[in-house]
Amino acid sequence: MAEAKWYVVHTYSGYENKVKANIEKTIENNKHLAEQILEVRVPLQDVIEMKNGARKTVQKKMFPGYVLLNMEMNDDTWYVVRNTRGVTGFVGPGSKPVPLTEAEMKPLGIKTENISIDFAEGDSISVVAGIWKDTIGVVQKLDFGKQTATINVELFGRETPVEISFAEVRKL
Fold first, then answer.
1. Listed range (71-75, 89-93, 167-171) with the worst mean pLDDT
2. Buried (b) or exposed (e) across 52-79, using 16+ Cβ within 10 A?
């Protein structure tokens, strides 16, 4: 079994989310692909816009026209992705896809090294760094791809989900 790596797929402009949805639907329908195509991502970034004198934070695509895939490259996965509606091809010379390097993935917030954690969903944790330092919350969701934990904290009298890096928390 080949090792999964991150690849970049070029899409028609504005079709990034449709391509992501189509690939995820194909994976859902073909269970053997779920072990080979691990993640489909359209990288987003927060941008502050000024509209009518008000500051507004909106999410914009980091790379319009591109979708990132964490997958094992073989004839089946190449065929499925390449023949997905809206995909124009893989990024690389000719028809040969080239995986992203560690240095290229770092600014995208994609980490490949695995961090072992001593907490799970439902555990109480304390935040030890960052803007939520000294906050205590219950783990709602773990995302090992982004290496983050989503916890609920009380903000203005309401339970609010907050995403925290694994490195910033410890189990109580």
1. 167-171
2. eeeeeeeeeeeeeebbbbbbbbeeebbe
SS (H, E, C) 19-35: HHHHHHHHHHHCHHHHC
Phi and psi, residue 86, nearest 5°: 100, -15
Q: Strands of the chain (E only): list them.
A: 5-11, 37-41, 44-51, 54-61, 66-71, 87-90, 124-127, 136-143, 148-155, 158-165, 169-171
Contact (Cβ atoms closer than 8 angstroms) between residue 95 and residue 89: yes
Structure tokens at 10: 């070029």
Q: Which residue has the tokens 């330092």?
A: 133
> How confident is the model over 32-65, as pLDDT tens digits?
888 888 889 888 888 888 888 788 888 888 889 9
Indicate whether this model's pTM tops 0.85. Answer: no
Q: What angle do CA 99, 40, 165 make, to 5 degrees?
A: 90
Give yes or no for residue 116 having a pLDDT over 70: no
Q: What are the tokens at 45?
A: 């970034």
